[in-house]
Structures are given as C-alpha cells and as structure tokens.
Design brief:
about 350 residues; alpha+beta; Beta-Lactamase; Heat Shock Protein 90; 2 domains; five-stranded antiparallel sheet; five-stranded mixed sheet; 12 strands; rod-shaped
Length: about 350
C-alpha cells in the first residue's frame, strides 16, 4: 500500500481492512476498524477474515466472488436478519497486481451498532412525535373543556343574577298578597313562610338541573313528603322550564295547603290522585295535569279570592298559556291544566 493510500486509510472515519489471497488473510486494518472490533491491529493482522464473522456470513461469499471475478460488490443487511452482524453494510473491491486480483479491500459503510442506534433514535423520535401529538390533542381537548366550563359558569352567573331579580319580585308579591288579608298576623306569617318554603324547594330542584328546568315528579314529591301515604302521583318524566316550574310549585303548594285545611288531607281517610301525561307528538304535543281529591269532607266553594286564586288561575293561565279548570264538586275538588308541551317544557 502506497504511503498516500496508507495515510488516507489511517485517517479515514470508516473502518477499512485489506485481505490477501483466496483464504482472505488480513494484511491491514485501519484504526477505525480496530475501534469497531475493540481489538488492536496486532490481534487482527495475519488471521483469516472469516474468523471475525459469524458462520456462513454473506460477507465471505462476496469476498470469494470479488476475488474470483475481480469485480466490486456492495452489500446491505436486511432488517429482519438475525443475529445482527458486525457490518451492516459494506463495499469491497479487488486489489490488483498485473491486472490479477491479489486481495480485496473492504470498507464498512455502516456498522450494525450504528444502524441499531440510528433505528433506536428514529423510533424514539417517532414515539416522541407521536407523544407530542397526543399531548397536543389532550391540551386542545382540555382547552375546549375549559372554554365550555367558562361559558357554563358565565351562563350560570347570568342566570343567577336574572333569577335573583325575578325571585325578589316574586317574594315581594307573595309577601304583599299573604299579609294583605284580614287574617291574624301569626296565621298570615305562617302562610307566608310555607309559600316561601315551596319557592325554596323549587330553587333546589332547579339547581339540580343546572337551572335549565325542574321535573314535575320532583316538585310533587317535595311538596307531599309528609302526606306520601295519602297522595298517589303518576306520570312520565317531564322537565318544566324555570318560569313554569316556579309557578307549578306554587300552585301545587296552594292546592296542597287547601287540601290540608279544608279538603282530602284534612282527615285520615282522604286521598289525592295526581296524574300528568303527554298526549300527541311534535308541535301538537300537549301536557295534561290532573288533580283529584277524594273521600274528604264536602267541598264548599271559597267565598273570597286571595293569593291562592291568583296562583291557581291567573298566574297558571299566564305561564302555561292555557286556562286551568277548577271544579268544586261536593265529592272532591279537581284541578286540570291542558297546555302546549312546547310552552312549558325545558
């Protein structure tokens, strides 16, 4: 090997080795090749090249062919090859003397270790990219959820402010009507407290539904917890909008108060049947509510019209969009509402 070629090989970053003869005896290895095998040149020079390789390695076959034909060859291992060889890819060409092959020069273009590191790095980069994509998607999803939560919170705050104003007006109206009659102050105060409790129960039911509405069944249940054995309430799930729910709770409370004082709930054998239903479908769907008292004392129509009358007739007609029917039959008071479902539902 000329001094120039030797200097080039000595400083080459890629591993290089020269073999001689048909047995491929190692005659030269550069420092990069020694570092690859982690052996000094003294332990490598003079031994057959095949002793450095796995049995039946493709490299030996190519060496034989290059030495025999005098034509250069290149080789790259397949991804599925096992076990991985030392040299992942290499190029070899003949060393000629008088145009006859005397040996072969081998240059390792990629080591198996470097290839595995490259694959591992690429895999890590791919996994990192995938993870970053997943984190980005998760962050976007959380951002959307936060925006929705903020919008929901703003809606609730606005609703609370609006409902607070409405509630104050309703409370003032209830207070004014409850205390304007000729009944004793203590009695009027008790009536007022019970009406405010009915209003508070409605707010509790509305709060459970996020102020979007309150179920008919829940409003009825809360009103008749004490008289549950005398009251039978049956009907499907119907969610009333906040305004109608408030009026409905007050009218149920007025009916229950009247029943407890003068009607079916004023004696042990009395009973009340409450039934509501939805008839029809689409825009023609109707909400029907029926209250029927039985087995109570004979019904006597009221001689004056107070707050209860305003709630049961005027307020109900206004908020339900339909005029209720009240019948003071001797066998028991009945009350009915037949309203458009689209008007009363949440």
């Amino acid at each position: 090997m000329s001094s120039l070629c030797l200097a080039i090989a000595e400083h080459a970053p890629l591993p290089m080795v020269t073999v001689e003869g048909a047995s491929h005896i190692v005659r030269y290895v550069n420092p990069a090749f020694c570092r690859l095998l982690d052996k000094p040149s003294e332990q490598l020079v003079g031994i057959p090249f095949c002793e450095m390789l796995p049995e039946r390695d493709e490299c030996v076959t190519l060496l034989d062919r290059v030495f025999r034909t005098g034509k250069p060859e290149s080789h790259t291992e397949q991804e599925h090859s096992k076990p991985h060889p030392i040299f992942w890819s290499f190029t070899m060409w003949p060393v000629l003397a008088d145009e006859r092959p005397m040996g072969v020069m081998i240059q390792v273009t990629e080591t198996a270790q470097f290839h595995e590191k490259t694959l591992a790095m690429n895999e890590a980069l791919m996994l990192g990219s995938l993870r970053q994509h997943e984190l980005t998607e998760a962050a976007d999803s959380l951002n959307v959820q936060l925006q929705q939560a903020e919008q929901r919170l703003q809606f609730l705050m606005n609703e609370l402010a609006h409902r607070g104003q409405n509630q104050l007006a309703v409370i003032l109206s209830i207070t004014s009507r409850s205390l304007s009659g000729a009944q004793p102050l203590a009695e009027a105060r008790e009536v007022l407290v019970q009406r405010l409790h009915a209003l508070a129960r409605t707010q509790s039911a509305l709060m459970k539904g996020g102020f979007e509405g309150a179920p008919v069944a829940e409003i009825v249940r809360l009103e008749f917890e004490v008289f549950s054995k005398q009251v039978k309430a049956v009907g499907p799930d119907v969610m009333l909008n906040p305004k109608v729910a408030q009026t409905f709770a007050l009218l149920v409370h007025e009916l229950a108060t009247n029943a407890a004082k003068h009607g079916a709930l004023s004696q042990a054998g009395g009973r009340i049947e409450i039934h509501w239903s939805i008839e029809g479908a689409g825009a023609a769907a109707r909400f029907k509510f029926q209250w029927q008292e039985r087995d109570g004392p004979p019904v006597i129509p009221p001689t004056r019209q107070g707050f209860g009358h305003i709630v049961l007739e005027t307020a109900a007609a206004q908020d339900f969009g339909a005029q209720p029917k009240i019948r003071f039959a001797p066998e028991g008071l009945s009350y009915e509402i037949d309203a458009s479902l689209s008007v009363i539902s949440a």
